[in-house]
Design a protein that fits this description.
The chain has 391 residues and is α/β, with parallel strands linked by helices. Helices cover 32% and strands 17% of the residues. The protein has twelve helices and eleven strands. It has a nine-stranded mixed beta sheet. Helix 2 links the parallel strand 2 and strand 3. The chain is globular.
Length: 391
């Protein structure tokens, strides 16, 4: 029995629906479409699926999905909480199930009508129905009703302390939009963004403007995980899971962890970094590209520090040097990310990490990509993983 998940499992298939602002179909239909596409990509029959993992926020029950796609008897099914923080967590659950023999073919999925249906940007201004939302009652009377306003408070503090400018946030947005220009699936495809346009955009929650926010998207994404040994014999080049972890630290809330000793770092990301590097035996210098969770541009700059690519307060310097660009030190979100491709709660970032390992990104870096770092949601219980080429 393995005592580490290193190299035990691999992503063998990815499947995505079209991304839109109005899918015109149910979320169950989106789930079935992306899962079928992931099976086709891997070259396996849906009848081989014996495990399913999704988000607690997903509306499609596993048994409904299993019937819709013709899955096998399910020996493993699981759900992860905390919105976008669940993305890598679903892969961690799948990898554990594979490594321990609970299942042999696990599909992680997220299907959402995130624009035409329930919109994440509407915040929690409606009825509070869960005990873990109670803490937001401390902030709502002051107009802090949406994720953008919660993150803006931390962004203001961080930017003031370290001299981060709006132009620095703009550089993140523009870099990812430039990647999206090559991606026909992306919202930003064919829509260049200039610094002038960025700076002239109305701020939604100071200092964040429209271009600092992720998209609201209808769509689905599925990731098929199986053993690393089996994946080598399937249809597509596998992306081997070198390390994967979840992370939540003391004082953790959902995006409003304002009572920690300081607000200038991301403790949950630092914990994820420490664990995923230790499990994989790799470090920041070994990472060739990244798909960092980008609900907001400020989160990218802070994560560069969390994952050790630079020192405290130096994330802005990496961005100014063009590190996130196609020819930079750490090409990031080469599909456009959640900001300029679409918002499937981070699952589409995982899919892009797999494409980078395969050499199939629409913005594939010229340099060799041996290892890709992927992170989950920022400011919530989260996770990180490193994908690598098969030996």
């Amino acid at each position: 029995m393995p005592i580490s998940l290193k190299n035990e499992a691999a992503v063998a298939g990815i499947g995505l629906t079209d991304f839109s602002k109005n899918s015109g179909v149910s979320e169950l239909s989106l789930a079935a479409q992306c899962i079928k596409a992931a099976c086709d990509d891997a070259g396996v029959s849906p009848a081989e699926i014996d495990g399913l993992v999704t988000y607690t926020l997903d509306s499609t029950d596993e048994i409904e999905v299993a019937r819709a796609v013709g899955a096998a008897d399910l020996s493993f099914f699981s759900r992860i909480n905390y919105g976008g923080g669940a993305a890598v967590g679903t892969i961690a659950q799948a990898a554990m199930a594979i490594a321990t023999g609970q299942a042999s073919t696990v599909v992680c999925y997220r299907a959402m009508n995130g624009r035409s249906g329930k919109r994440m940007g509407q915040g929690v201004s409606g009825e509070i129905t869960s005990s873990d939302l109670i803490h937001w009652s401390w902030y709502m009377p002051y107009g802090m009703l949406i994720p953008g306003s919660w993150i803006a408070m931390i962004a203001n503090k961080y930017m003031h302390t370290y001299g981060v400018t709006r132009e620095d946030l703009g550089r993140v947005a523009i870099s990812q939009r430039n990647h999206a220009l090559r991606n026909p699936r992306a919202y930003g495809y064919g829509k260049p963004l200039t610094m002038e346009e960025y700076l002239q955009s109305k701020q939604i929650a100071e200092p964040l403007c429209l271009y600092d926010f992720c998209q609201e998207t209808d769509g689905g994404c599925a990731i098929l995980v199986t053993s690393a040994e089996r994946a080598r014999d399937l249809k597509r080049p596998p992306a081997v899971i070198r390390g994967v972890t979840q992370a939540s630290t003391r004082g953790q809330e959902q995006m409003t962890s304002y009572y920690r000793d300081e607000l200038l770092s991301l403790p949950e990301m630092e914990m994820a970094a420490k664990r995923v590097y230790a499990m994989s035996g790799l470090g920041p210098a070994d990472i060739d590209a990244a798909c960092l969770y980008d609900a907001f541009t400020s989160e990218i700059i802070m994560q560069l520090e969390s994952f050790g690519f630079c020192g405290e307060g130096e994330g802005k310097d990496l961005v100014r040097e063009g590190a996130l660009d196609i020819d930079g030190r750490l090409p990031n979100n080469t599909h456009g990310g959640l900001i300029s491709e679409g918002y499937i709660h981070g699952m589409n970032n995982i899919a892009e990490g797999v494409r980078l390992i395969r050499g199939e990104s629409t913005s594939q870096p010229a340099k060799a990509v041996e290892h890709v770092l992927v992170s989950s949601g920022v400011g919530v219980p989260t996770g990180a993983m490193i994908l690598g080429k098969a030996d």
